[in-house]
């Protein structure tokens, strides 16, 4: 198989973690063609990307020496790991490379301080440096473990537009460039170690794909290389059926479909962002979430297959406001829903859930609590005349929690909603509103914030997820 695999910042955050990564790479390479994509080192006391961005900002405020304190710390952190894992000669080369990168950064911070301005383009040069340092370190560690590994900057592979800080890949150009560079290496049984997070424009100007962008880098490369599978190595065994802090008996799910993953990400579960994996979903490439620190666990596989089971996971979104617009004159009042949601959109709020009973006397929808006041103000302006005519009589706002039950097997299976409502009734949880889209992938319930945790536990229990 051809496997493109990504290691996040914590998975490469220390010498011990990188030793584990090297072990995984060696074992995977026995059986597969392997490409690694790596984030910047993320140690609890030195978060590389955050630190680089802070230095760039200090430079823009006029501190020409903004990197003076952090550059030696970054150098020390990388070299300490290298000393434990790479050969002495690789360590020597690495140190020269890292020093020259950090020197470049200090020159850049002087220029930024003189200009007194930090453009998104200059910030990308700063923030992407962590990945460039780390790819070189990881490649050296892999060589120390006996692999023929090679560090590559994704500026040579991933071609993007010029939206600095949040660039979008140009897939055709990327395909051509990445394949031309990586295929011969893979055929030669080499192991490319590619920087996550960064790319470059057609003209070769470095860009970044947005914070947390290494997952996206991995998907892009998996897609253009026609990988058989793409693995995301994280610090958990896989995707869980509920938040383990709330539900101690939460389980790692063996299998999820792409759409179930999308639903879960939307409802705040810590899985991959749907946009990030879109290149893989489009090509039907299976995704695996695995645990760097427990590689014997098979993890969760996410693919086009629906898998088995009805309800698979239950999640909660907190800090939500439920806004209700109601009045006797709303029955048959054409266009009122369009005007309500138009107003909400003008306020810049995002609807998390919408529900209207067929009596048409009220419409309710949920937005993030921080967005509620603006949405209500915009609604009052929009509906001023309807209020005078008493068609609309109230706009209510309550704090709430949304509980979402996800699972594509719920489609066409009778009795699921009954079981959910029954379990909440038994637990004494009152349901304020309900929404289920006709895709039946997801049933969402609105409950009081004080009952949210119990609702999650009760539903999890009743499906023994
Ligand atoms: N290092 C980058 C960040 O912290 C990218 C990533 O980790 O995915 O945002
Ligand atoms: Mg990250």
From TrEMBL:
<dbReference type="InterPro" id="IPR018042">
    <property type="entry name" value="Aspartate_kinase_CS"/>
</dbReference>
<keyword id="KW-0808">Transferase</keyword>
<dbReference type="GO" id="GO:0005524">
    <property type="term" value="F:ATP binding"/>
</dbReference>
<dbReference type="GO" id="GO:0004072">
    <property type="term" value="F:aspartate kinase activity"/>
</dbReference>
<dbReference type="GO" id="GO:0005829">
    <property type="term" value="C:cytosol"/>
</dbReference>
<dbReference type="GO" id="GO:0009088">
    <property type="term" value="P:threonine biosynthetic process"/>
</dbReference>
<dbReference type="InterPro" id="IPR005260">
    <property type="entry name" value="Asp_kin_monofn"/>
</dbReference>
<keyword id="KW-0028">Amino-acid biosynthesis</keyword>
<comment type="pathway">
    <text>Amino-acid biosynthesis; L-methionine biosynthesis via de novo pathway; L-homoserine from L-aspartate: step 1/3.</text>
</comment>
<keyword id="KW-0457">Lysine biosynthesis</keyword>
<dbReference type="GO" id="GO:0019877">
    <property type="term" value="P:diaminopimelate biosynthetic process"/>
</dbReference>
<dbReference type="GO" id="GO:0009090">
    <property type="term" value="P:homoserine biosynthetic process"/>
</dbReference>
<keyword id="KW-0547">Nucleotide-binding</keyword>
<comment type="function">
    <text>Catalyzes the phosphorylation of the beta-carboxyl group of aspartic acid with ATP to yield 4-phospho-L-aspartate, which is involved in the branched biosynthetic pathway leading to the biosynthesis of amino acids threonine, isoleucine and methionine.</text>
</comment>
<comment type="pathway">
    <text>Amino-acid biosynthesis; L-threonine biosynthesis; L-threonine from L-aspartate: step 1/5.</text>
</comment>
<keyword id="KW-0220">Diaminopimelate biosynthesis</keyword>
<dbReference type="InterPro" id="IPR002912">
    <property type="entry name" value="ACT_dom"/>
</dbReference>
<protein>
    <recommendedName>
        <fullName>Aspartokinase</fullName>
        <ecNumber>2.7.2.4</ecNumber>
    </recommendedName>
</protein>
<dbReference type="InterPro" id="IPR054352">
    <property type="entry name" value="ACT_Aspartokinase"/>
</dbReference>
<dbReference type="Pfam" id="PF00696">
    <property type="entry name" value="AA_kinase"/>
</dbReference>
<dbReference type="GO" id="GO:0009089">
    <property type="term" value="P:lysine biosynthetic process via diaminopimelate"/>
</dbReference>
<keyword id="KW-0418">Kinase</keyword>
<dbReference type="InterPro" id="IPR045865">
    <property type="entry name" value="ACT-like_dom_sf"/>
</dbReference>
<dbReference type="InterPro" id="IPR001341">
    <property type="entry name" value="Asp_kinase"/>
</dbReference>
<comment type="similarity">
    <text>Belongs to the aspartokinase family.</text>
</comment>
<feature type="domain" description="ACT">
    <location>
        <begin position="405"/>
        <end position="465"/>
    </location>
</feature>
<keyword id="KW-0067">ATP-binding</keyword>
<dbReference type="InterPro" id="IPR036393">
    <property type="entry name" value="AceGlu_kinase-like_sf"/>
</dbReference>
<dbReference type="InterPro" id="IPR001048">
    <property type="entry name" value="Asp/Glu/Uridylate_kinase"/>
</dbReference>
<dbReference type="Pfam" id="PF22468">
    <property type="entry name" value="ACT_9"/>
</dbReference>
């Amino acid at each position: 198989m051809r496997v493109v695999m990504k290691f996040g910042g914590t998975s490469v955050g220390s010498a011990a973690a990188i030793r584990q990564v090297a072990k995984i790479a060696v074992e995977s390479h026995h059986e597969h063609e392997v490409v690694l994509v790596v984030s910047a080192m993320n140690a609890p006391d030195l978060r590389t990307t955050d630190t680089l961005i802070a230095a760039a900002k200090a430079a823009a405020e006029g501190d020409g020496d903004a990197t003076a304190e952090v550059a030696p710390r970054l150098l020390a952190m990388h070299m300490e790991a290298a000393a434990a894992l790479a050969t002495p000669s690789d360590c020597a080369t690495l140190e020269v490379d890292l020093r020259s990168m950090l020197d470049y950064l200090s020159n850049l911070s002087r220029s930024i301080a003189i200009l007194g301005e930090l453009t998104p383009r200059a910030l990308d040069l700063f923030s992407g440096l962590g990945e460039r340092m780390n790819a070189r370190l990881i490649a050296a560690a892999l060589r120390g473990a006996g692999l023929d590994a090679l560090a590559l900057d994704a500026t040579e592979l991933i071609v993007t537009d010029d939206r600095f800080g949040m660039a979008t890949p140009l897939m055709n150009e990327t395909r051509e460039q990445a394949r031309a560079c990586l295929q011969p290496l893979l055929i030669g049984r080499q192991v490319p170690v590619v920087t996550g997070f960064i790319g470059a424009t057609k003209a070769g100007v470095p860009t970044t794909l947005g914070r947390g962008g290494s997952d996206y880098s991995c998907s892009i490369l998996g897609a253009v290389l026609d990988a058989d599978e793409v693995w995301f190595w994280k610090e958990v065994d896989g995707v869980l059926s509920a938040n383990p802090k709330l539900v101690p008996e939460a389980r790692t799910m063996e299998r999820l479909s792409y759409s179930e993953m999308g639903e879960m990400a939307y409802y705040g579960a810590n899985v991959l962002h749907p946009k990030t994996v879109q290149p893989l979903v489009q090509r039907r490439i299976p995704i695996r979430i695995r645990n760097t620190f427990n590689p014997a666990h098979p993890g969760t596989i996410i693919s086009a297959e629906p898998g088995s089971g009805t309800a698979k996971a239950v999640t909660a979104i907190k800090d939500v406001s439920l806004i209700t617009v109601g009045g006797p004159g709303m029955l048959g009042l054409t266009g009122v829903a369009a005007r309500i949601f138009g107003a909400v959109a003008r306020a810049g709020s995002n609807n998390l859930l919408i529900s209207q009973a067929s009596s048409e006397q009220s419409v309710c929808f949920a937005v993030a609590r921080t967005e509620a006041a603006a949405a209500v103000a915009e609604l009052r302006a929009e509906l001023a005349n309807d209020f005078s005519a008493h068609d609309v009589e109230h706009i209510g706002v309550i704090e709430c929690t949304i509980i979402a039950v996800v699972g594509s097997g719920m489609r066409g299976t009778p009795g699921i909603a009954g079981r959910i409502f029954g379990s909440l009734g038994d637990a004494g949880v009152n349901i304020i509103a309900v929404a289920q889209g006709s895709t039946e992938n997801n049933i969402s319930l609105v409950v009081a914030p004080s009952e949210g945790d119990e609702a999650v536990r009760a539903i999890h229990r009743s499906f023994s997820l």
